[in-house]
Every structure is written in structure tokens, then in C-alpha cells.
Amino acid sequence: MDRRTMIKGAGATVGLGLGMAMSARSYARIKGANDRLSVAVIGVNGRGQAHMGAFTKVPNVEITHFCDVDSAVLAKRAGEFAARGNPAPKTEGDYRRLFDNKALDIITIATPDHWHAKLAVDGMKSGHHVYCEKPIGIAPAEGEAMIAAQKSTKRILQVGNQQRSSPETRQLLALVQAGDLGDVYEAQTWYANNRKTIGNGHVTTPPANLDWDMWQGPRPRAPYRSNLVPYNWHWFWQYGTGELCNNAMHELDVARWLMGLTYPKTVSAQGAKRFHAGDDWEMYDSLALDLNYDNDRVIRWNGQSCNAMLTYGRGRGVLLLGTKGSAVVDRNGFELYDLAGKSIRQVMAKATSETTGTVGEGVLDVYHAGNFVDVIRGRASALNSPIAEGHISTTLCHLGNMAYRTDSVLTVDPTTGKPSSAEAMKLWSVAYEPGWEVKA
Q1: Of 381, 350, 395, 374, which Cα lies nearest the Cα of 166?
Q2: Angle between the N-to-C axes of helices 167-177 and 249-259, in degrees from 0 to 180, rounded to the nearest 10
Q3: Which of 42, 350, 399, 432 is 20 to 30 A from 144 (CA-CA)?
Q4: Is the dihedral of CA 246, 252, 258, 264 positive or negative?
Q5: Exposure pattern of 324-338 as b/e (b: 16+ CB <10 Å)?
Q6: Cβ atoms of 43 and 68 closer than 8 Å
Q7: Quick check: helix, strand or coil at residue 183?
Q8: Is 429 exposed, middle or buried (0-12, 13-18, 19+ CB in 10 A)?
Q9: Among candidates 63, 338, 371, 112, which has minimal Cα distance to 218?
Q10: What is residue 156's DSSP assignment?
């Protein structure tokens, strides 16, 4: 049995948190079980840099390949990586050649949102374990396809909600479950930044170093625009998912995890584009979201893309309101308050993580990558952010976008997350370029 076959056989974890098909003890008996795992990072211009930093810190793991559709960025990141003393990675512009490589064990996905589901599904079907950045797709149907592909392939699939691997947030979870805050009836979440205008672009020839056709990948073909790449695609519905999926995803995930919630009963969103009038930004830059649950519980998100006013001294975070007390938590620790609003306990992380930067790098990435690798090796029984959980949290964000785009309050099936609105359900899935469909 070669190393590749052996690791694939050990990857029979169901990403829905159902545990290992092979125990850690039995896996450890297999000869070569501790061999080095090889990793390919796909998408290396932004968030992929955090993947590089995290996986190089996980023991007995080696990043062997970089993949990107921009040849200039690919060469730059490979050179920087080697200059830091790492073995020079092999570079590839077409992910399909990576997936044919049976010596690779893991792929990490840090591409634009419209690529996440396609790469994750194809990666699992080719036998690789997958670490996929949030959001898991640009429509809920893509999350459903990822769940189905994970079930059929038995690959390990970790979603990049890295705060679920925070020791401090997990400590707060234990306190909430023990009843220290009483009945937690509301979570207020927020994100604040000071984004600048993206200006007015124009249709032009893509730069020679960018494979524009491959960049578009699964999406229907469109002309290249001068102000779209590398980051501003976030604000165009053709490729992006707005600040909800870009950033609210993290805090909504933490809030519902701490409160033990899944899908809400109703979803409402009031948003507008309030800044940089006349530029090409297609979406809201300011948005208030309400997710209403049974027993009058609610999760709220206040998103300010262009107004960086802090809340509780933080650019992003979660406030839990309970009948016995409250807590404020972010990536770098938490603070408990009594009902008089007096701080009674503070727990700070020993090492910090970036909060509002576009790379978002920090120690939580290392913890999260470590949990992923431990499950692959059979040393941990459950992923901290399996696909079933990632799908629910991503769908909350999609529902917020649906409510905003249809200008309506959505009534939601709490078992499936699907809205009753026929107009909103038109956004449950997206069209693909022929031959590029996402198929489980």
C-alpha cells in the first residue's frame, strides 16, 4: 500500500461531524501513517498567503505546489516562499493538472468565491482532502453539492471559519453551555472598515500574465474590466457575494455556534450603497441584517464597509446578551460582563490574529490547519468546521443577500434553510459556463 492510498483510506471521516470510520489507534498502526503530507495552495495573491503561513507551521506537512491563474503573482509568491527558507514550490496555472497528481494529499482553496465549490468538489472527486475558504460557494446549491461530494468521496473537508479553532472562543462556548450567561437571547455582530472607491472601470484586454478565461472558470463568460481583479470582484454579483459572505460569515458563524442555532424563521436586511456615489460597486456598502429564531432569539449583523467606527473597541466581533450576563468575543479573546455592565473577567489570546485586513493571517489559521491535519491522520475525531456547519453559516449570508436583493422579509424553512419566496429561490443556484458545472 503506497502512502497516497493509505492516507485516502484513513480519510473516511464524514465531514458532517459523525466521527472517524477508522480510529486514531488503528490508523497509527499502519506503516507510514506519519509520512509527510503534501499540500497545494490554489489562489496565492491574498488569503492564500495565510494558508502558506499556517500549513508551513503544522508538523510533518510540506507545501509542494502553488497554483494561480496570474503567472506574475504565481512567480512572485513562489519566490517569496523560497526566500523564507522553504523548499521552492512547483507552480501550476491549471488546477486540473494538480488534481491529476496522485502524490498530492491536500489542496487548499483561497481563490475568488465563484471558484470555491468547483475546486472543492473536483478536488474531493480526484481523491484529495480539501481546506476551503469561506464562503463555500456563491449560492446555497453549491454548498449542497459540496455536502454530497464529501459524503460520496469520504474525503476530509474543512471550511475556513478559523475562529472555531480559537481556544478562547471554545472556552467561552463551554461557559455558555454551562449556563454562565443564563439564557442567551440575542447576539449582536458587526464588521467595520474604511474601503475606498473602486472607480469606474472599462472593458479592455486582460493583462498578458492573467488567464482571464481560467479566472472566470465556472461563471458565464464576460469581458474583462479594468477594475475587477485582483480584489474588487467582491462587489460584483457575477463573481462576488458582498460583505455578508466576505466578512459577516465569520461572526454569524460564531454567534449561532455559541447560541446552538441553525436556520432562522425569518430574515430581513436593510442596506444601501451610501459611499463613493457613481463608482462601479454594484452592492450595498452598509447593511443591517436580522435573523429571527424560535423563542424570540435573534442574531443581528451591522456591516459598515466604508465607515470604520469601532464597536467595543473592535472592528469586528460578537456581543452575546444573556439573562445572567453578557460577553464580547472576537478572534483575540473574550470579556464577560454582569447585568450591570461591569467587566468581571477577561481572557486574551496568547498570540493574535488579524481582524479586518484582507489577508486575515494569524495563529487561528495554524490551529485550524492543525485540526484539519489531525483529522486526516486520525489523531482527532472531528473537524472544528465541517462542511455541514459551513453550509449553514454560508446560507445565512446568502439569505441576507436574497432578502436585500428581493427587498423583502424572507420566511425560511428552519430544516432546509430555503425561503418560501419564489423570487428569492431564483437565487438559490447560479448559471454556469457550459462544461464548467459544479456536479457532486
Answers
A1: 350
A2: 30
A3: 42
A4: negative
A5: ebbbbbbbbbbbbbe
A6: yes
A7: coil
A8: middle
A9: 112
A10: -
* φ/ψ of residue 209, rounded to 5: -80, -10
Phi, psi of 377 (to 5 degrees): -80, -10
User: Which amino acid belongs to residue 167?
Assistant: P
Residue type present at position 204: T
pLDDT at 357: 65
Separation of alpha carbons 116 and 93, rounded Å:
16
Q: Which amino acid is at 427?
A: L
Q: What's at 16, amino acid-wise?
A: L
Segments in the chain below pLDDT 70: 1-34, 354-360
Residues 169 and 255 sit within 8 Å (Cβ to Cβ): no
**What 8-state DSSP symbol labels residue 93?**
S
- By the 10 Å C-beta count (0-12 exposed, 13-18 middle, 19+ buried), 117 is classed as buried
CA 175 to chain centre: 26
Predicted confidence at residue 279, as pLDDT, reads 98
Distance CA 82, CA 113 (A): 28
Residue 21 has a pLDDT of 33
Residues 6 or more apart in contact with residue 86 via CB below 8 angstroms? 56, 63
Tally Cβ neighbours within 10 Å of residue 258. 23
Give the C-alpha separation, 112 to 106, whole Å. 19
Q: Is the peptide bond before 230 cis (omega within 30 degrees of 0)?
A: yes
**Which amino acid, one-letter code, is at 75?**
A
Would you call 65 helix, strand, or coil by DSSP? strand
3-class secondary structure, 253: helix
Residue with cell 465563484: 114
d(CA 402, CA 289): 11
Q: How far apart are CA 132 and CA 108, in angstroms?
A: 6
Q: What is the pLDDT of residues 279-312, one digit of tens each?
A: 999 999 999 999 999 999 999 999 999 999 999 9
Q: Which residue, chain included where needed, has cell 464562503?
A: 135
Cell of 10: 484513513
343-348/333-337 β-pairing: antiparallel
> Where are any strands of DSSP class E within 202-322?
266-272, 286-292, 298-304, 316-322
Q: Please, are residues 327 and 181 in contact by the beta-carbon 8 Å criterion?
A: yes
With both helix axes pointing from N to C terminus, report the angle between 71-83 and 48-55 in degrees, rounded to the nearest 10: 30
CA–centroid distance for 377 within its chain: 23
Q: What is residue 320's predicted lDDT score, i.e. its pLDDT? A: 99
